[in-house]
Design a protein that fits this description.
By secondary structure, the protein is of the alpha/beta class. Helices cover about 40% and strands about 20% of the residues. It is globular, with a radius of gyration of 25 Å. The structure holds 3-methyl-2-oxobutanoic acid and zinc ion. The site of zinc ion has 7 residues, from loops.
Length: about 525
């Protein structure tokens, strides 16, 4: 008997990027897409091609280079958007155009000012247009869970007739309750005559904290594609957390009777990469991927787990990719050991890359007794940031601070042209002084929206990870940096954000840099 599979549709790069405070480069999106490929998702929604040149480029690059999964681009129901999506997906091995249009009376009345017939016409025309470009077309009636059921059945039937191969039922505002959402899905199966010609998908938001519960209820009712984001990222309170959906289906196979194509051991590495790239830490008690998800604090639980793991663990932590904080390398480890461990973590390095990474590894191992997998992942992310962003490089930072001192930072940078520039600045605190020192040299000082520090591993010698969110000319720039010294990490992260600003806006008119 053929296996009953649920298609896993990842929209971290599209809906996830709609999280307030998110902002990624094309290269970062590409790195995440490659990891999603390793995770085994069936569909990657790589962006919304018509929304910006950056999204267009991301869809196009991921489409051309990530060949196994289906690569989707979102598109509003208008000819220009559909054409842009098709253009961006030209090089994709398995392209999908995902057209959406609101179907609830609320949105029709207040946002679109259109009636049912007009909306039906736009949906059908756009799906038919998308179908001329590619055979795989998805349609989403936005705000489906608040739409009139009769109209929802009509629009779903009409888009399938026009060529949609997947119909996605979004709970766009997170309003649904599991039993009722399952009933809605059953209603679609029972009332749309051609429903057997399409896959029924769901896309749930988490405004009431029910996105995963609603998605799983929909699977019970027959949905065979689930959309979501890693770590539950997404617009407002986010989307259904894909890792929870996957492990729900996997752990309770007895109930759902379905399988997925996911390699569950890639869940934690994917979560970490997404968290690090977005600059959104994962809450400690987050299911599956939170750092407390498999930690037992109570003595009674610890005793039981030591006797038999399944007494208090319904999943094996290793099955979702927790490798623990085991010591993997130290200051005596050589290049071969480093290369082997990085390969086990999924990084394939050229000789030159290994030489660079080895230097950073050695200096980290000098400061830290134990270099764990998490440290190595941070180190790789730091290397990638330096190579990918180009621009200025941090050469030196020294800070004077204390209870009776005016915090003063001395900073030396290497310019994109290769010259060293240096200067000193004072600030309200040491981080302020470091940022001012960097900003003076680069010649631009954007507004600070957010500054976050968190430690990657435990212990006083832990690597500190810093995220800056800066805004300039109405745009957001996210910068990240990691180091065992949080002032150095702050300087790296601030400079990373400024380099992104320079890449997007060009060099400032009058740089105040001094040599
Ligand atoms: O939440 C939503 O309705 C969406 C659609 C574009 C699928 O994100
Ligand atoms: Zn959404």
């Amino acid at each position: 008997m053929a296996e009953d599979k649920v298609i896993i549709f990842d929209t971290t790069l599209r809906d996830g990027e709609q999280s307030a405070g998110a902002g990624m480069t094309v290269d970062e999106k590409f790195q995440i897409a490659m990891q999603l490929d390793r995770l085994g998702v069936d569909v990657i929604e790589a962006g919304f091609a018509a929304s910006s040149p950056g999204d267009f480029e991301a869809v196009s690059r991921i489409g051309s280079e990530v060949r196994r999964p289906i690569i989707a681009s979102l598109s509003r129901a208008n000819p220009n958007d559909v054409d842009r999506a098709a253009e961006a997906l030209k090089g994709a091995a398995r392209p999908r155009i995902h057209v959406f249009l609101s179907s609830s009376d609320n949105h029709l009345l207040h946002q679109m000012r259109k009636n049912h017939e007009e909306v039906l016409g736009m949906a059908v025309e756009s799906v038919a247009r998308a179908k001329r470009y590619c055979p795989d077309v998805e349609f989403s009636p936005m705000d489906a869970s608040r739409s009139g059921q009769e109209f929802l059945y009509r629009i779903v039937e009409a888009v399938i007739k026009a060529g949609a191969t997947t119909v996605n039922i979004p709970d766009s505002v997170g309003y649904a309750i599991p039993e009722q959402f399952a009933e809605l899905i059953r209603g679609i199966f029972n009332n749309v005559p051609n429903i057997d010609k399409a896959v029924v998908s769901v896309h749930c938001h988490n405004d009431l904290g029910l996105a995963v519960a609603n998605s799983l209820a929909a699977v019970r009712a027959g949905a065979r594609q689930v959309e979501g984001c890693i770590n539950g990222l997404g617009e407002r309170a986010g989307n259904a957390a894909l890792e929870e959906i996957i492990m729900g289906l996997h752990t309770r196979k007895d109930l759902f009777g379905v399988t997925t194509n996911i390699d569950t051991t890639q869940i934690v590495p994917t979560s970490r990469l997404v968290s690090e790239t977005f600059g959104f830490p994962v809450q400690y008690n987050k299911a599956i991927v939170g750092m407390n998800a498999f930690r037992h604090a109570s003595g009674i639980h610890q005793d039981a787990v030591l006797k038999e793991r399944t007494t208090f663990e319904i999943m094996d932590p290793e099955s979702v990719g927790w490798r623990g904080n085991s010591l993997v390398l130290g200051k005596l480890s050589g290049r071969a050991g480093l290369r082997a461990r990085l390969e086990q973590l999924g990084y394939k390095l050229s000789q030159e890359e290994l030489t660079l990474v080895f230097q950073s590894f050695k200096s980290l191992a000098d400061k830290k007794r134990e270099v764990t997998d998490m440290d190595l992942e941070m180190l790789m992310a730091e290397e990638r940031r330096v190579t990918d962003t180009g621009g200025y490089r941090l050469d030196l930072v020294q800070v004077h601070t204390g209870t009776s001192e005016i915090p003063t930072a001395t900073v030396r940078l290497i310019t994109p042209e290769g010259t060293a520039v240096s200067g000193a600045a004072t600030g309200n605190g040491p981080v302020d002084a470091v940022c001012k020192g960097v900003a003076n040299l680069v010649g631009v000082e954007p507004a600070l929206d957010e500054y976050i520090v968190h430690s990657v591993t435990g212990g006083l010698d832990a690597v500190g990870h810093v995220t800056f969110r800066l805004s300039h000319n109405g745009r957001l720039y996210v910068g990240r940096g990691a180091d065992t010294d949080i002032l150095v990490a702050s300087a790296k992260a601030y400079l990373n954000a400024l380099n992104r600003l320079l890449a997007a806006e060009g060099a400032p008119q009058q740089a105040t840099a001094t040599t």
